[in-house]
Amino acid sequence: MSVRVLLADDQPLVRAGLRVLIADTPDLQVVGEAGTGIQAVALTRELDPDVVVMDIRMPAMDGIAATRMIVEGGAAARVIMLTTFDDDDNVYGALRAGASGFLVKDMALDDILDAVRVVAAGDALIAPSVTRRLIAEFAGRPVAASPARPLAVTGITEREREVLTLVGQGLSNTEIAQRLTISVATAKTHVARLFTKLDARDRVHLVIMAYEMGLVAPSR
Q1: GO molecular function terms here (predicted)?
Q2: What is the mean pLDDT of residues 191-203?
């Protein structure tokens, strides 16, 4: 069964390029196209895609506002933000809005296709250059947790706290298992419990929580 993709970009040439690329890929299919954020929200509700590839800068409604409406509206679709700017000031806002991925348009085409597959499978993906921008954003913020966060932290075990810290540092489940000398299956179980206990959407959300709780401090 192929992954259903909605393309949202105000540049017809960008949409056409992605559409042609996906058309040659047996496990992906484009089910619709939008030129504004408003159209993206409406088509997501109408077509129920698995993944929305969303440009961050569009007229009428930008990609961040559209993503927030899609996520808060309860749609099953997961959103990948696609931008020309890997140093975009809106990276943090897009992830907080519920985006599951953040890619730059100059990435290799195969990498973009792989990102769609990864996000459709329920994981999260951020381009390395964007990750650096996100970390820089956190570095400029106070490390102290907000009043609501300590309560959430006390609801997890010491081992889960260790796992959350390592997730915040960007480690994969395999790397976490190696660091803590546990099995990969056990690491996955701890991460799954963190999703439930912290009501996190995905791994990106866990990374954000780790920073906001003060479990991870950006190196300066």
Answers
A1: DNA binding
A2: 84
Find, among 42, 109, 118, 45, the residue nearest to 80 by Cα.
118
Domain-by-domain residue ranges, the chain?
Answer: 3-137, 142-212
Pick the CATH number of 3-137 from 3.40.50.2300, 3.40.220.10, 3.40.30.20, 3.90.1150.10: 3.40.50.2300
**Among residues 179, 128, 186, which one has the least CA distance to residue 157?**
186
- Which one is predicted more confidently, 170 or 220? 170
Length of the chain: 220
pTM: 0.68
The CA distance from 62 to 114, in Å, is 25
Classify residue 143 by its DSSP letter.
Answer: -
User: Could you tell me which of 122, 116, 197, 129 has the C-alpha nearest to residue 163?
Assistant: 197
